[in-house]
Amino acid sequence: MIRTNRSILHVVAHQDDDLYFMNPDLVRSLQDGDRTTTVVLTAGEDDGINADVNDPARHTVPADPAGYSTARGCGLRSAYARMATGDRSSPWQREVTELVHGFAVECFTLVARPAVRMYFFQLHAALTSPQGMRTGLYELWAGLTRTHPTLPVWGSALARVQHVSREAVIGALAALLAETKATTVRMLDPDPEHDGGKRDFVVSDHLDHTAAAQFTVAALEQSRGTAKRGPVVEPYRAYANRFWGQNLDAMELAEKADYLSVYMGLGSTHCPQGTCHQCGDRQLGTDPYRSTHMRSSAYRYSPGTDWLRLGPGGRLNAYGVFAGRLGFFTETGPATGVWQGPFMLGDEWISPSLALAGEPGGPAHVIGLRRRTADGGAVTVDLVHSVQSADGGGFSNWHSLENPDWTHEDLRRQRELGVPAAAVDGAGRLYVFARDFAQGISVRRQNDYGGWEPWESLGGRFLQDAGTAITTELGTVELYVPGKESVSRWHQKAVGGPFFSDNTLTTGTVATGGISAVNSGGGRVCLYYRQAATQQVMAYRQHENGRWPGSGAPLGGSGGTGPVAAVWAAQRGAREAYLAHRSARGRLCVSLPDREQDAAGPRWRESGGMFAQAPSLAYDAAGALVAAVIGTDGRLRVQRQLHPETGSPLGPAVTV
Predict the structure, then answer these.
(1) Which of 89, 178, 515, 581 is the most buried (most CB within 10 A)?
(2) What are the Cα distances from residue 210, in Å, to 13, 14, 300, 376, 570?
(3) Distance between alpha carbon 25 and the CA centroid of its chain, in Å?
(4) DSSP class of 509
(5) Is residue 29 a part of any domain in this protein?
């Protein structure tokens, strides 16, 4: 088994959240031999009936909350054993540990793979009261209860009920962050979108998911201290996956279904761990494809591909977010290939997806999505802006751009603020775009004096949180955003002018996860994205007359999810740009143009280890292409063309 310095910590609310929402990233980490730790916060006991929710005779099955929680835990460990060793019955070592004083939890270690561990906090998921069923984890997070009880499971040495405080849960997670030396933290969505198809406000996600995510953020903030860098943080969408184009193909769905079948207890005749009568989660029935939850695995904050750029002094700069703090890397000189960083900027909690804008070689505008939690659990979310100094050596303090829904009395509206997209027009004015609560687009722009105009709604409906902005060859700004069935475009007819909507694009359904746009010569824009349900990379290039084709052109790829980074190659076509994406194995997959112009078509090459978010491409000061990723070990890796000419291959990776 390959040993790595990657340590991945998963924090979920229920025993199947990681299988539904974080796979296939989870199984790839297990297959790569990463140190993998999973924390399940609640007992997940629901109504305590371990029988198919669609079974008409279900009401005859007696409720047994502890028994159902036991069966779910056994099913999850069987699925992990299958993913890690191929044998669902591979044994686990069971022990009790006290992560913080007064709060003991059970830890399970996979005997055949001791680097695979699971912790079960067993906080009661549901509490019955005169008002009906309540969600206990949410109440504990929100301060509605001072302590919350645990639910002991069968066979546990922790036979007594513990009453756990909010601070103890945060402290226990912080202790695990320190003990595991986590380089990547995978968590759930702290601010899920509402169901935009309903007239009234309808929460799309489980309150336990949201509370689990907020506990994770609090633990990460508590753990940051004076560390040079913290872990990469990857929040995943949960139930909201069902709203947008499926991003897993048939092969990955089949793999995911196989592990879910083990968790469900399908094919098992006995409990391999000897702790339950009916191993597995039988509430899910006999068909793992029955749930829409499994058809995508997407980040809550759709990542951008513009985080590597040529900065002042001819030095390449790279940007990342580590434990909620902005990190900055820089070359020591033009095209030296020698890097410094990360330099951590500020102590705000910044979500993982950044937007970068500015002329290549000039100072960068950095736009982040800031999240703040006040006493009592109230959350505010806004966009913040910082600008790089002219010499490239420093940054201004964050300046709040507020939020399109900033003044609304319902704070839930501003929590759904989308990730930023940004561009600077030909007159040097910065434009910042984001999806608003109405699932349309709003923009805030600088005026001629550097001040900011109010937020302006551009309209739109049922748009993904994955827009990309571009400055055209004429200096105007355009925005492209995937929706339910195609991509919407907003564009200017003159520099500084109003935005006009263009709904003539017929890309087909874009998989959830992102889209990229590049100037492709002759005043034409080319889009790169993934086709829904196939993971195939697609190119969609504007005609010379400004109109759009009837469909995209397939470019293949190596599976995977997330946006495609693109840099245009002069005198080449849409299939011959420099392209990079995250493959089905989570690795860097690059297509470089061939030396010969008549050898058209992508040539995908996969290399390196698993990385987070999305890759980025940029030209250095000498004109050579550079590809960059941030690995799940938290390290920046950079590859540069051996020669600054079309067709030159990438050299070996440099780790910063």
Answers:
(1) 581
(2) 9, 12, 12, 15, 46
(3) 11
(4) P
(5) yes
